Amino acid sequence: MLPQGYASTSIEFDTDYVLELMSILERELQGRLKPGVAQQMALSANQLKRGRRRFHIVPFTLPDGVVTQFCFGLYAEDEDVTVLEIHFDARLRDAVGAALRRLMEGDSANRK
Prior knowledge:
Elements: E1 6-14, H1 18-29, E2 32-33, H2 37-47, E3 53-61, E4 67-76, E5 81-89, H3 93-105
Antiparallel strand pairs: 1-5, 2-3, 3-4, 4-5
């Protein structure tokens, strides 16, 4: 069960794009993750074995200095595909939705 005021969504995507997702979230929310968190998330996603899951609670600093938390639930469907559940403050729903759409549409300068 989510804390009051939190929402969630999920997507399925290639584990190679975890770093890109974190970067897009920072841009869309105009905030920042603690240094090294994105790399830890990418490593965690790539180390998951099929059928296993992990959860990460990640602090995120918004532009006004307020710190909120994201909960990322990673579930490995196979060696390259991860289901990602994201739990977040419901007030951020539009920005999180925009970030996920950008990732899924491939609209990022970081994609190689």
